[in-house]
Design goal:
Elements (H helix, E strand, L loop, with lengths): L22 E10 L2 E11 L4 E5 L6 H9 L6 E6 L2 E2 L10 E4 L11 H11 L4 H14 L15 H14 L4 E5 L7 H18 L2 E6 L2 H7 L2 E6 L2 E6 L1 H6 L4 H6 L4 E10 L4 E5 L4 E5 L10 E6 L5 E3 L9 E11 L3 E8 L4 E7 L14 E5 L5 E4 L2
Parallel strand pairs: 3-8, 3-9, 6-7, 7-8
Antiparallel strand pairs: 1-2, 1-4, 4-5, 9-10, 11-12, 11-14, 12-13, 14-20, 15-19, 16-17, 16-19, 17-18
Helix pairs in contact: 2-3, 2-4, 3-4
């Protein structure tokens, strides 16, 4: 998540019991040809959020976005924006703008004409249109590009024109459908920061649809992870990453090691899990209610696992294995270590040394170990 001044608050707006939701989705369901696309989805979004709907293709996130835009009507449920029921309001009457994945710019129009198009449809005066177009061009740093046609712009510039056109209408809600998909990695990273800064300047609530976990983690105040037409978990990026509520979310967000096991000891400050995946009794600082004998999954992020060529003095949460693969990614390396059961365990280490100077090589015998507070016990 991009941290800014506005994010440095003691309590987030969604954690404040006195905060009033800005957008409320209540029991929304939608089917196509008797196939259920969205299944009784309910959640709230607060004013000024950059909220992401994250999930694989076909999970229902774009359908939900189209319902918010008024391009589709739900089979059941309600959508309330700023206290007003807009469920059956046609799209052209909603204070909502949508930025499409293709940008949908008119190729025969100039940048100015593309941005002004929606304002002319609203019958605004020429002076107001000129003022707003100039305002949003400055905002997206495209002043001086007014007379260019879309084919004379780069992908990033076309993306900013589409954003400017959406912002010019001053909507209460801006919907973004995979807006960065067509951009290369470097431009995408730059645009992520630009979008967040623009969103903070204008104060408009953004809802972003994406399948890109890194994009959602970088930009969002909160993320809703979707699967099969349902919301699996909603939370701030760090909560989703550090405390996933299920195996699905844990595997979908980032890389993770998962070990199936059984609870054999449960105390107030920890649980002891026996897992045959790595032939180890693992301590976890997990304080949930877990009866003895419960089948659980132990989850550990690769960057939480440490590697040593000598056995650590504290043998708790320690296993031995052989390095079978090393993935060099520049800033980090991922070590794939095979333990005695044949299970592959991932460990990530920052590359503080050059490739030729690093301590671990293929076929090295190593010890893997981790702190009990860095493992998570999943029950679903």
């Amino acid at each position: 998540m991009i941290v800014s001044k506005s994010n440095k608050r003691e309590i987030e707006v969604w954690q404040d019991v006195n905060s009033k939701p800005y957008l409320q989705i209540e029991n929304i369901s939608k089917s196509h040809d008797d196939i259920s696309i969205i299944k009784e989805v309910s959640f709230s979004i607060y004013k000024g959020e950059l909220f992401s709907l994250l999930g694989k293709s076909g999970c229902g996130k774009t359908t939900l976005l189209r319902i918010l835009a008024g391009l589709e009507t739900p089979d059941s449920g309600k959508v309330l924006l700023d206290g007003v029921d807009i469920t059956n309001l046609p799209s052209y009457k909603r204070p909502v703008s949508m930025m499409f994945q293709s940008y949908a710019l008119f190729p025969h129009m100039t940048v100015y004409q593309n941005i002004a198009f929606g304002l002319k449809q609203d019958n605004l005066s020429k002076n107001i249109i000129e003022q707003r177009v100039k305002e949003v061009l400055n905002l997206v740093q495209l002043s001086g590009y007014e007379d260019r046609k879309p084919h004379n712009l780069s992908g990033g510039q076309r993306q900013r024109v589409a954003l400017a056109r959406s912002l010019a209408k001053r909507p209460k809600l801006l919907l973004l459908d995979e807006p960065l998909t067509a951009l290369d990695k470097q431009l995408k990273e730059q645009t992520q920061f630009e979008l967040v800064n623009i969103q903070e300047q204008v104060g408009i609530t953004f809802i972003l649809v994406t399948h890109d976990q890194e994009e959602a983690m970088t930009m969002s105040t909160r993320i809703a992870v979707m699967e099969g037409g349902k919301i699996r978990q909603i939370g701030a990026p760090h909560d989703i990453y550090e405390f996933p509520n299920s195996k699905y979310v844990a595997e979908f967000i980032g890389s993770i090691n998962l070990f199936e096991g059984v609870v054999i000891e449960h105390e107030l400050d920890h649980v002891l899990i026996e897992t045959k995946d790595i032939e180890c009794k693992c301590y976890s600082a997990h304080t949930g209610a877990l009866p003895m004998g419960s089948k659980v999954t132990l989850a550990i992020r690769p960057e939480k696992i440490m590697i040593s060529q000598t056995k650590p003095s504290n043998t708790q949460n320690c296993i031995q294995g052989v390095i079978k693969e090393i993935a060099y990614l520049g800033d980090i390396s991922i070590y794939y270590v095979e333990v005695s059961t044949g299970k592959i365990v991932m460990a990530t280490i920052p590359n503080l040394l050059r490739l030729s100077e690093r301590n671990f090589q293929w076929e090295d015998s190593v010890y893997l170990f981790w702190r009990s507070e860095n493992s998570l016990v999943l029950t679903s």
